[in-house]
Amino acid sequence: MTRETKGGPLPDPHTLERRKGEARAWFETLQGEIHALFETLEDEAPQVAGAAAAGRFVREPWERTNHDGAPGGGGTMGLLHGRLFEKAGVHVSTVHGTFSEAFRGQIPGAAEDPRFWASGLSLIAHPWSPHVPTVHMNTRYVVTTRQWFGGGADLTPMLDRRRGQDHPDTVRFHAAFRDAYARHGALRDYAADKAWCDDYFSLPHRGEMRGVGGVFYDYHASGDFSADLAFTKEIGRTFMATYADIARRTMHEPWSEADREEQLVRRGRYVEFNLLYDRGTLFGLKTGGNVASILSSMPPTVRWP
Question: What is the DSSP string of 233-302?
Fold first, then answer.
């Protein structure tokens, strides 16, 4: 499977509707599981000066209107502010409609027919502690005149000593996803998707990566929908287990004002990437998505010195 593969052909309408339902059900299930996990981590975390008590997710449903005024689906935002996570967003959406004429040429299959359907989960977590890495994960299923899965996860440590590829947290994060890929045989090439992540989550104007990478894949359609969905589920479950382990081992480490200052500056790099380069942000804004949900990936406090 190469980066240039642009999804697979559509099955018959009945099969396609079943697939849409299975994908949507998984993303909504995963949202609930991550909400429960993050709330458990909140209960385990130490109190932070100036932070709230252990946080709980606030769920807010939203509805989308297509650019032509027709109903276009929607989703559920889940936002948490607590004592481990200064801000965490775990959202699901299922949207449909037509791409605008200006945007359809950028999406595989949309030039032939502008209709689309997409369902997915997106997650971003910005912890209070500079020792606990910021993390991002998303997975999705998209249907135009083609159909495919995409997504990935990446880690952004905030302190100098945690940025290197040889740090134990970085090694553990990469090893977990390497093993996850191995559990699915030759479905995807781990080394290629790791390199894709490094290439994608980079800041060309600064000549640096956003963090320490992870995995990134898109336009994935092997011809076996069940296998592809199982792989997508694996990404979500691997993220949960690995990040929870890292957070539990780092949340109790003491940190200084200098550490916090460095964290806020590094968060600025996160903002730069998401506003300048992230195609998920662009997709959401160009398709009339929920602006509050799309921009919830922005850290609550940031600094450019």
Answer: HHHHHHHHHHHHHHHHHHTTS---HHHHHHHHHHHHHHHHHHHHT-HHHHHHHHTT--HHHHGGGS-SS-
CB 119 within 8 A of CB 129: no
Q: Looking at the 3D structure of the chain, how many domains does it have?
A: 1
Give yes or no for a contact between 144 and 203, defined as CB atoms under 8 angstroms apart: no
CA nearest neighbour of 97 among 122, 63, 61: 63
Residue type, 44: E
DSSP codes joined into one string, 54-73? S---EEEEEEEE-TTSSEEE
Place of tokens 């450019």: 304
Active site residues: 136
- Which residues in the chain come in under a pLDDT of 50? 1-2
Q: Which two tokens stand for residue 242?
A: 């690995």
Q: Is 6 exposed, middle or buried (0-12, 13-18, 19+ CB in 10 A)?
A: middle
The first and second tokens of residue 57, run together, are 């997710």
- Identify the CA nearest to 136 among candidates 121, 117, 114: 121
CATH number for the domain spanning 45: value is 3.40.1500.10
pLDDT of residue 99: 87
Helices (H), the chain: 13-44, 160-163, 168-182, 190-200, 225-250, 257-276, 279-286, 291-294
Six token digits for residue 75 = 């989703």
205 vs 66: CA distance, rounded Å? 34
Residue 133, C-beta contacts closer than 8 angstroms, at least 6 positions apart: 127, 155, 156, 157, 158, 162, 169, 211, 246, 250
Distance (Å, whole) CA 151 – CA 253: 31
Question: What are the residues whose beta carbons fall under 8 Å from the beta carbon of 191, sequence distance 6 or more?
Answer: none
Q: Which residue range forms the structural domain that includes residue 262?
A: 8-297
On whether residue 3 sits in a domain, the answer given is no
Q: What is the pLDDT of residue 152?
A: 97
